[in-house]
């Protein structure tokens, strides 16, 4: 199968030398790309600026992007021919309304930036999802975690949502280990152990492939 996978942060420029970004390392997304490739599938990895080596597996094609708009364009190109979509990227929700053509010079004591909303890649592609396609999203929540994750599943037309909890020490951003809860529209809830991200990725891939075989 063809897998579309978004990963890493996005960087939203404010001038030629500065951007707004986030702390996503891309590790979980890259581990998922490796796990899908190891399971015999072809992966289009649309990656924001992660400080990770480009995967060397010949079944992984990596497309490097910077901004949410670029990530959307690359994902939209790969989506129609992919059976499974996985949205592991930490996409910036907003970008500076204007990108200054020259470096913004230090002036007053405060600086006010106006931000505008970025395209929601998962939700926009979710509207085009065909019956035989399968969409997997991620959610990182700090409160009412499962309720928020299920709300995202419905809003973005996901078949599976992977919930990252910040409550577990050693899980999430920047760590080499992770612990996730997998939720489906029909109420299946499965929690992984705290494991290296590569092992968690294999568990997620096995779960997604089994669900895909059953429902898509
Ligand atoms: N996502 C996306 N495009 C965006 C924002 C999010 O594709 N512009 C995807 C993420 O890759 C993830 C899922 O949507 O799979 C949920 O991301 P999240 O940031 O938790 O959702 P938001 O709708 O942005 O909600 P929040 O207000 O909690 O940030
Ligand atoms: Ca968000």
TrEMBL record:
InterPro entries: CoaB-like_sf, DNA/pantothenate-metab_flavo_C. Pfam families: DFP. Residues 2-209 form the DNA/pantothenate metabolism flavoprotein C-terminal domain. It comes from the Bacteria. Signal peptide: none annotated. This is Phosphopantothenoylcysteine decarboxylase. It comes from Hymenobacter defluvii. The lineage of its organism: Bacteria, Pseudomonadati, Bacteroidota, Cytophagia, Cytophagales.
